[in-house]
Amino acid sequence: MKNMLKISVVAILFITAACNNQQSETGKFETKKAESNGYTYEYVTNDPLKVRIYTLENGLKVYLSDYKNEPRIQTLIAVKAGGKNDPAEATGLAHYLEHMMFKGTQDFGTLDWAKEKPLLDSIETMFEHYRTLEDADERRDYYKLIDQVSNEASKYAIPNEYDKLVSAIGAKRTNAYTTEDRTVYINDIPANQLENFLNIEGKRFKHIVNRLFHTELEAVYEEKNRSLDNDYWKTYETLYSSIFQKHPYGTQTVIGTIDHLKNPSITEIINYFEKYYVPNNVAICMSGDIDYDKTIKLIDQTFGDWKPNNELPNWNKVMEDPITAPIEKDVLGPDAERISFGFRFDGRGSDDYKMVTLIDMLLNNSEAGLIDLNLVQKQKVLEAGCSVDDLNDYIIHTFNGTPRDGQSLKEVKNLILEQIELIKKGEFEDWLIDAVITDLKKSKVRQTEFNWARASDLVTAFTNDIPWKNYISEIDDLKKITKQEIIDFANEHYKDNYVAVYKRTGKDTTVQKVEKPEITKVALNTEQKSPFFKELLENDVEPLKPVFVDYDKDIKKAKMNKDIEVLYTSNTENDLFSLYYLSDVGSNNDPKMKIAVEYLEYLGTDKLTSEEFKKELYKLGCSFSVFAAEDRTYVVLSGLSENMEKSMQLFEELLESPQPDEEALKNLVDGILKEREDAKKDKFAILYNGMMSYGQYGSESPFTNVLSNKALLELTPDELINIIKGFTKTEHRILYYGPKDENELVTILNENHKLPEQLQPAPELVEYIKTNVDNTQVYWTDYDMVQAEIMFINKGEPFNNNLAPVSRLYNEYFGATVFQEIREAQGLAYSVWANYGLAGKADGHDSYMAYVGTQADKQSESMEALLDIINNIPESKTGLETAKKAIMNKIESERITKTSILFNYENAKRKQLDYDVRKDIYEQVQNMTLEDVKAFQEKYIKDQNYNIMVLGNRDKLDFSALRKYGSVKELSLEELFGYEKVEKIHIQ
């Protein structure tokens, strides 16, 4: 199943016994009404998600889905307004309002609302005046006045109290996002904290308070600057602005223009809030361990008095002119070249969406689509694929491709267009339509095992005004589409009516940055709590009892032929399986292992070509993948349980008798060499792969343990084939999650998993030891960017499981602290974090890392602030209490289930543990004090030496400031990546 698939449908014909029991042949989906405990709701018969849809008297929609996988609830609160609803003269409002929603209300986040409010009103008035000023000196001087009043107001603010509140009740993944069409607020909460959560949210959504406005404005500036440094984002904006020349989807951006960000309006934000943040424009969507009657009653109690907007404006779709000829644009930037192009269609709720979804999968399903087999499998391009951008008013069928060495972007585009032409001509096999629909169903069955996916479906239906009955019948609708209808639709809609964006490597001379005015650090009342916070913490909540994995009871253990260990857990939800062959052999044993598993993707057997093999496996509703990590290799087969044995037989043939292909190897090596050069243009690969590894290990690391380019060119098919064949001949074990019982599973494995007479031991592992940092050193790498990315890296202690509880508490406590200090108080960075990480193996070392991404002209200030707080951790009893409650509530409500049980056990074995380490954390954290955290910090973190890794533009970095920390050395890309530059990489 391709990763980029964005279809938002719910599988109706579950390939499961449970689902089959729910469905009938006729009248499958009908919308009905029912009443329970005084509340009327709608539901759809045979709905696999068991959704109830309530509408409160004030118009608030509530979508509830009960799924008792663990005692937690995924909550998404969706506002039907996004970037397209921003006034053209004040873009970025929806997104900035999203940020301000985390600043609290008059009930929390404040020490004294009566004293704070007049100051906030003054700040609002001052910003309105600031917008009218044009003279640069006058603006700078006036902003100093805003800064003064803001600092006075901050004396009454309790920063980050919303996050403290939800963290204290055990919320996870607290966040929000704004798109063109919607704004959605995210929390994953323990089920027993539902009432507390709703009390918080009920207050948050009724009132907005724009406190700490100018420091948060700094964060938004940073977010904008990060987008200006991102070639993917620039390509996306160019594509949209060309496809949508009238609609706000293209005429403005969600994050806003630089001019509008420089002239923010609190008044406009308040007006936007009062217009759109109203109950008749919002839905509360929840999936998890829910009691329907109790939940709707609590929601009514906390949101029922929210006043609607009876003059809520209707959104009128802006009609675009037809595109009658290709529109082509260029984007310059340091990243590797690639092509993106798209066709525009009617919106998410239209019939176009269903047809485009089907065509998208016929072209690219990661296994047997036309792009997959004709371009990727045959290595005619480096990468290619497509996806559906499902906006409310329009959708875009987007295509992407990366060229091979010597190949032009137009050649890649034309090769993809040729695949679309095959659809138009009907030159695809008839079975593929049914296989695609089975694949979609299988994917959705997987997704229904996760509350995030279930709740997201509810959001999509609400924000697109799609009746739930229609929403969950979309796959049935796809089944009704004929091959001829696909052909006719493709011929009508896929013509020369596309927009193509050529992302080329080069210097973008048009890049701007948001110039940020100077601000003074605001006061942080970190020890203070609002009365609301105190009352909330005193609420009696029926506690949950933690459940730890019992490796003897929760994992079934068996033996198959040759005494190979089989570990398995039962899937009682559906008819899908996952089968893992897992060995302790990886790239650190042999760097050729990664090449061999990639080569396997392009090989066939003595009976089937590689294309035929992919087709046969896809027909069975199954797929395989092979991944070589540093010290492990995973061979994974998954899909429909009814076809497990047939798919195993196919896959075992491939492992036992892969057929060498000289041309495939030449193309593979050619592609790897091109990918290596492209990676040196990717700032994320440079920072998080190259620089992070160098900071931990030095010049020789698991990341640089790769074949040289010369050695790559000398590879032969036979040596890679031998590595592939040797996998099942080397000691390994089997992990299984699925519906089969022990006897049936072992029987199938014994009959189909082919083994030698004697299994060979794993080859010797090359160990890489993290570098001792005796003196702080600064390493930097040049990259054409507006911002600077900075990491502090230190080798930690040898693995000691006794540090697990206190390090977990430190990370929880310090994570909130560093965010407050760097972003909330000083507005120095959009992103900042620090973490003490325990080693993954008993013979490994821990590590400490801290990161800040900031504007280059604030590099020195940001580094000083981050290092100061690392060495001089602020003491906050309130912060510690919140951190402890967060850890306790999370552990009490989380459940390790399904395949996670197996890998929890595997990871414990690597640390030589025979129990779930969360038990230690839970039992010890609740008794820890601030002195314990300080002692840990002083012993393992305070005043340590660091390898400081800096990525930025040589013309913007402050090297004199860097030299204050230690010697400064530039690292070349060759030093970071471990392979030499290839002047000509095409293989003759």
UniProtKB/TrEMBL annotation:
Write down the PROSITE patterns for this protein, in alphabetical order.
INSULINASE (PS00143), PROKAR_LIPOPROTEIN (PS51257)
| Residues of the signal peptide | none
Highest taxon listed in the record's lineage: Bacteria
* Required cofactor names: Zn(2+)
Q: Which InterPro entries match?
A: Metalloenz_LuxS/M16, Pept_M16_N, Pept_M16_Zn_BS, Peptidase_M16, Peptidase_M16_C
Domain Peptidase M16 C-terminal residue range list? 267-438, 734-873
Assigned keywords, A-Z: Hydrolase, Metal-binding, Metalloprotease, Protease, Zinc
Give a Pfam family name. Peptidase_M16
Residues forming the Peptidase M16 N-terminal domain are 68-107, 597-689
Q: Which family does it belong to?
A: Belongs to the peptidase M16 family.
Query: What protein name is recorded for this chain?
Result: Insulinase family protein
Native species: Splendidivirga corallicola
Origin organism lineage: Bacteria, Pseudomonadati, Bacteroidota, Cytophagia, Cytophagales
